[in-house]
Amino acid sequence: MRVFISVNLSKEICSHLYELQQRLRKDINAKIKWVPKSQLHITLKFLGPIDGNKLKEVKMILSKAKYNKFILNLNDFGVFPSINYARVLWIGVNEEKLVLELQKSIDGELLDLFPKEEKFSAHITLGRIKVIKDKDKFKNALNKIKTEKKSFEVNEFTLMESILRKDGAIYNVLEIYKLSR
């Protein structure tokens, strides 16, 4: 079973991000595999393939840990690894330090089972870039479309299963962990 830990987004935020994807689709000259609205999330930690015993251990560890709720705001667009070799289009969040604290805490709790996360960047992947036909037009479109600074409360995180298929991944919720005040 292929597993990751994420902050899933509200329907309102997913709808807003979907609208941004549609605007970008019109304005940029690129071939992009867009993340479906129902799968938009912030990945906190990718655990990879794990067996049933390890999954039970992960669930037990995460259920005992205590984390606080917090508010995030959508920020600007970005790309990985660089604007000249863009492969992933994403949107960032303000108050990244709050997501980072949650991620580091989860990372620390699971350190006996999984290696420490080397590079973490709080972001929501909007699409995977296949080809950019006009880099200047692409850059200009990203700069031109301004995102509303929509805010949302993070009051839970989720243990997810990812099943890879030819037509894209399917996500299943394995467990939801509520955050406290």
What percent of residues are in strands? 35-45%
Mean pLDDT: 93
Task: Give the CATH level 1 class.
Answer: Alpha Beta
- Second-tier CATH architecture: Alpha-Beta Complex
The spatial strand order of the largest sheet comes to: 2-6-5-4-7
What can be said about the biggest beta sheet?
Answer: 5 strands, antiparallel
- Structural class, by secondary structure, is alpha+beta
Helix-strand sequence: EHEEHEEHEHEEE
Distance between the termini: 32 Å
Rg, please?
17 Å
Shape: globular
CATH superfamily caption? Cyclic phosphodiesterase
Q: How many alpha or pi helices?
A: 4
Number of domains: 1
User: Under CATH, the topology is which?
Assistant: Cyclic Phosphodiesterase, Chain: A
What's this, in brief?
This protein is an alpha+beta fold and 181 residues long. Helix content is 30%, strand content 39%. The protein has one domain (2-178): Cyclic Phosphodiesterase, Chain: A (Alpha-Beta Complex), CATH 3.90.1140.
Structure commentary:
This protein has 181 residues and is an alpha+beta fold. The chain has one domain (2-178): Alpha-Beta Complex (Cyclic Phosphodiesterase, Chain: A), CATH 3.90.1140.10. Helix content is 30%, strand content 39%. It has 4 helices and 9 strands, in the order βαββαββαβαβββ. It has helices spanning 11-27, 52-64, 96-109, 135-144, and strands at 2-8, 30-34, 41-49, 70-80, 88-94, 123-132, 151-154, 156-163, 170-178. The strands form 2 sheets. The chain has a 5-stranded antiparallel β-sheet with strand order 2-6-5-4-7, with helices on both faces. A 4-stranded antiparallel β-sheet has the order 3-1-8-9, with helices on one face. The radius of gyration is 17 Å and the shape is globular. The two termini are 32 Å apart.
